Amino acid sequence: MNRVRSAPPYVVSDRVAELHGSLDVVDLHADSLLWGRDLLIRGDRGHVDVPRLIEGRVALQAFAACPKVPRHINLDRNEDRSDEVLLLGLASGWPVSALTSLVARTLLFASRLERFAARSAGRLTIVRTAADLGAHLERRSADPTRTAGLLTIEGATALEGDVANLERFDDAGFRMLGLAHFTDNAFAGSAHGITKGGLTGRGRELVVEMERRSILVDVAHASPTSVDDVLSIARRPVVASHTGVRGIADNIRNLTDEQLRGIAATGGLVGIGFWPTACGGEDAGSIARSIAYAVDVAGVQHVALGSDFDGAVPVPFDVSGIALLTEALLDARLTAEAVRMVMGGNALRLLARTLPGPDSAI
Fold first, then answer.
1. Distance, CA of 117 to CA of 149 (rounded, Å)
2. Which residues sit opposite 217 in a β-bridge?
3. Pick from 119, 102, 103: which is nearest to 41 by CA?
4. Above 70 in pLDDT, residue 318?
């Protein structure tokens, strides 16, 4: 389900390899925790594991907990009556708690990443605070055979309708939460739901509480009305972790120019996706064109990567080949400094000022 258009090894020019080797790459969305692979072992399927992250020069990978997905998902209209993740859990032998509770299921994904980090002999660190991020980058500057993970949640369905459950996710180290996934929920409408409504009263309460807890609000998959509602009340940076732009690929999943500018106005980030519905094509050049478009509209400091690796989508390369995107961005006439910002610098700067610090205790 997680195909690549071309298999490794991936080859770039010496000039590109030199620039890419100096980067701290950050990707804002991958679903690699979902599938049960041992992410400490280099795989020959899927898109992400720790060895391939290190080979791709990825300093930080956001790992999403995806608690529920309806059957026969599509871009236009999905009912919340089925649960494909439950079927995966049954087949994988998950504990009963994770089969019966979306909160417990979400926490199961966090525990998976924790176990990988504990077994990694320092190759994988989990970043939960600004201090964690600074320490990781300092260690990585001396030893590039290190990477880190950031815990995120794909869909406020995980909260089971109760804002109070956010405290459990905060305590577990989740630092970004998407308001909707493929179905409408108690907090927000989905771009792919039935009603596609905006933020509910509980949704507005959730946004306020997320900001209070220094948890980034993610509008990827949210309905257009929900995105606009969030932008109207946000007091901290808003992120679209993995998305596209309608100026390149015109569908309801992607952001309008006005929404791109609105996210930029919050100081936030737009993570451009690598799959065809997001970027409008099947190669690295298509991703680069969408990035260049977002840079022109939102400003270079507000654009980042949001691959959707291991999200049951086809992409041009696995994470070990992400230098192909560096090459494509240079071919799209972005400067080396702009490439450095988009490939990771913008995301690191945002996280350094939004992750919890000594002055953000609640």
1. 9
2. 177, 238
3. 119
4. yes
- The answer to whether the Cα torsion of 50, 319, 190, 296 is positive or negative is positive
How far apart CA 323 and CA 327 sit, in angstroms, is 6
- DSSP lists the bridge partners of residue 151 as 63, 174
Residue 208 has pLDDT above 70, yes or no: yes
- The pLDDT value recorded for residue 6 is 84
User: Domain residues of the chain, as ranges?
Assistant: 14-354
Quick one: pLDDT band at residue 362, thresholds 50, 70, 90? low
What class has domain 14-354? alpha beta
Band (74; pLDDT cuts 50, 70, 90): very high
Buried b / exposed e over 95-134, threshold 16 CB at 10 Å, is: eeebbebbbbbbbbbbebbeebbeebeebbbbbbbbebbe
Tally of CA atoms within 13 A in the half-sphere of 324 that contains its CB? 22
Does residue 315 contact residue 8 with C-beta atoms inside 8 Å? no
| pLDDT at res. 49 | 98
DSSP E strands: which ranges in 201-357?
A: 216-218, 238-243, 269-272, 303-305
Give phi and psi for 30, each to the nearest 5.
-145, 145
Residue 353 has pLDDT above 80, yes or no: yes
Q: Specify the DSSP element, H or E, that contains 266.
A: none
φ and ψ at residue 85, rounded to 5 degrees: -70, -35
Residue 205: is it exposed, middle or buried by C-beta count within 10 angstroms (0-12/13-18/19+)?
A: middle
Residue identified by tokens 């994470």 is 319
Q: What is the pTM of this model?
A: 0.97
Residue with the two structure tokens 């406020």: 156
